[in-house]
Amino acid sequence: MSTRTSQGAIAWIVSLNAVPYVAVPAYWVLGRSRFQGYVIARRDEDSTLAGALADKTAELWSHRHTPPYGTKDLRAIERLAKMPFLQGNEVELLIDGEAAFESMFNGIESATRYVLVQFYIIRDDALGRALQRRLIERAEAGLDVFLLYDEIGSYRLPASYLRALTDAGVNVHRFHSTRGPGNRFQLNFRNHRKLVVVDGERGWMGGFNVGVEYLGEHPRIGPWRDTHLAVIGPAALNLQLSFVEDWHWATEEILDLPWSPARPGDGDIPVLMLASGPADRFETASLMIQQAIHAAQHRIWISSPYFVPDEGVQGMLKLAALGGVDVRILIPERPDNLLTYYAAYAFLEPLLDAGVTVYRYQDGFLHSKAFLVDNAGAGIGTVNLDNRSFRLNFEMTAIVLDTDFAAEVERMFLADFERSRLMRQRDIHDRPLWSRVASRAAYLFAPVLQKTMRLTFPSLEGQE
Q: Do 162 and 21 lie in a common domain?
């Protein structure tokens, strides 16, 4: 009754009847498509959380950006986000781990009031301990420090790591995807957001988790290609709002943080932080990508490490290419998950037929999630083009409306294309029969495979 795709519903019906002793426990773990407890906490207009945040959201709306040109496409995005584009921001594109973590760590060290940190994965390695040390230093200096991590993504994080933080006064909690009687066995919902907020004035978000592999030190994966964004200005409060909502779900506490007008950045760049997840009324992440493709007049370039798009995104990509838009997709050459690797081939053939250009990144593992629309703006965030990001994960995307920023993202994409190979139809047709059969099999299960694949391959799950 609640499965969001017809293929998913059929898969469960067949398996529940054919192999019930396997399928019933699997349904307890993987079957739900709505995170019901969070839905109630977030949607209830009369809830304590909604009331407490009413003045905070009003403060954000006071910074609303009103564009001087046609707004239909932007209005759709704002209605999805339930938040406007905010003006008065300065942004910085952070390419790869050294730049991203240097910026975040410098920000944490310079905090004067409070620090909010949220990651999907935190590891107890050299990078994880570097973060831990800085959070302890800020807490011991008298600042309010809060750390939220996903209980499934960070399931290997040892108690000793967390105890050192709490002993120093850091407020630490895990995001409860299994909280509540209806979710007790659920392992499907993940909080995939990665963000840092300092003093309500500066924020960071994007693709990086906390682990040395994100600095390119994984012995098998090798170099790690990823993208993060730093922002100074009101958009940082938008990130803070998302953190407060997630913290409330995890702890039932409402954080009493300063919400005075955020210090504007040196620029006046409009930014919207679009939070999406399984508590939304609509499939926010998928609709956001479709709207970006629809808005493109000349080009839409998209980078995603996992490419298993739903039918809506596939159709929009084909229509854009058939209409003469320069549509480019950048995906990894080196897979960290075989199921999505084979499924992608089944999706790529009809896209190539429609005129979409596909690049496969060669220089290590591509984990960057970004898109570029014409010369008008770009998006940086945590959303993959797959079922899990579209329907099961809590995600965050920054949409930046600025021609200079778009030009910088263009240079980033061009550099990545230089390190990639262009896919041809023969790359699909010349594969061995067994590989083509594997692709079709993965394609059939595409609507549901994202639910199970990272439980099936826990050693690879950490790479996301």
A: no
Strands 190-191, 202-206: pairing is: unpaired
Pick the closest to residue 418 from 360, 375, 333 (CA basis).
Answer: 360
Contact 266, 235 (CB under 8 A): no
Within a domain: 310: yes
Stretch 34-41: mean pLDDT, rounded? Answer: 58
Question: Per the domain annotation, does 463 fall within a domain?
Answer: no
- Tell me: do 146 and 163 sit in the same domain: yes
The reply to whether 358 and 435 lie within a common domain is yes
Residue 270 has pLDDT above 80, yes or no: yes
Annotated catalytic, 124? no
Q: What pLDDT shows up at residue 240? A: 95
- The count of structural domains within the chain is 2
Q: Is 82 a catalytic residue?
A: no
Note whether 235 and 309 are same-domain residues.
Answer: yes
63 lies in some domain:
yes
Confidence (pTM): 0.88
Look up 374 and say whether it is catalytic: yes
C-alpha span between 347 and 307 (Å, rounded): 8
More confident residue, 186 or 201: 201
- pLDDT reading at 103 higher than 60: yes
Distance CA 21, CA 177 (A): 24
Task: Tell how far CA 98 is from the center of its chain.
Answer: 20
Confidence check: pLDDT of 4 > 70: no
Residue 464 lies in a domain: no
Give the mean pLDDT of 338-350.
77
Catalytic annotation on 192?
yes
* Tokens read off for 188: 């499907």
Please measure the distance between the N-terminal and C-terminal CA atoms of the chain and give it in whole angstroms.
Answer: 30
Q: Yes or no: say if 228 and 94 are a contact pair by the CB < 8 Å rule.
A: yes
| Residue 5, domain extent | 1-31
Residue 239, phi then psi, degrees to nearest 5: -60, -40
Question: Catalytic one among 218, 228, 369, 451?
Answer: 369
Catalytic site residue from 96, 199, 280, 336: 199
